[in-house]
Amino acid sequence: MSEQINQHAATADFEFDALRQAANYRRALIAESAPYLGGKVIEIGAGIGQMTELLEKIPAVTMLQSVEPDARFSSQFKANRPESPLIRGTIADVPGTDWNGLVSINVLEHIEHDQAELAAYARMLGEKQGLLVLFVPARPELYGLIDKDFGHFRRYTKAELRKKLTQAGFTVEHMRYYNIVGYFAWWLNFCLLKQRNFNQASVRLFDRLIFPVVHALETHICPPPFGQSLLVVARAGRSRLS
């Protein structure tokens, strides 16, 4: 067990390093999430705070409560962002049920009992029919050794995720695949070639030259028929649009 934990910690380190290189990717994801976030918002699985700094800049967000269960990551978070509220724990440790929004970016796949986790999110948001912004790895055929190293239990299909959200008490308002070029890059590197870490230079090149074009096409021209990830917006309880 300790070897597994150490392996997950090591892979998380180079995942954080890769995310640090992907500045355009981080900004685009938060910019796409921003219209759905306002008031009191929970950030689940804050890691070392790489997304936190962008979430805190969303004008409509009046309070951001970050949550991170890992002790080492929590320590790094506090060192990086000493003024940002952080709970070391899980959704069960967050007080109140009057939250307006909840953000979960690349977290749900790490949780074995994801249905129960989604139900907990719905309870936290139910009082105000708040919005969940959820970002997860997509397409089970892409599951590779690196997913296992990261501690991923699964990659999601649209149908699976919609069903689990509905059963948890959410109404899905928006769902789309994200990053079609990343789908092929992931398949090549981590499924076919079975690599088990990121190439920092490749991540930086993709983020600066390829991703901005791909994202613009996906956002403004045509949503992709499949992709590396899924971006979902779901409302706790009955949708106000229905």
Q: In the CATH hierarchy, what is the architecture at level 2?
A: 3-Layer(aba) Sandwich
Q: At the first level of CATH, what is the class?
A: Alpha Beta
CATH superfamily: Vaccinia Virus protein VP39
Query: Might you state the CATH topology name?
Result: Rossmann fold
Which stretches are low in confidence, meaning pLDDT under 50 for 5 or more residues running? 1-10
| Through-space gap between termini | 47 Å
List the domain count as a whole number.
1
Largest sheet: 7 strands, mixed
Could you give a quick summary of the protein structure above?
The chain is of the alpha/beta class. The protein has helices at residues 2-21, 23-33, 52-55, 71-80, 114-126, 145-150, 158-168, 180-192, 200-220; strands at 39-44, 61-68, 86-88, 101-105, 131-137, 170-178, 229-236.
How would you portray this structure in words?
The chain has 242 residues and is of the alpha/beta class. The chain has a single domain (2-236), classed as 3-Layer(aba) Sandwich (Rossmann fold). The chain is built from nine helices and seven strands. Strands 3-2-1-4-5-7-6 form a seven-stranded mixed sheet. Helix 1 packs across helix 9, helix 2 (23-33) runs parallel beside helix 9 and helix 5 packs across helix 7 (158-168). The longest helix has 21 residues, at 200-220. It is globular. Residues 1-10 have low confidence and may be disordered.
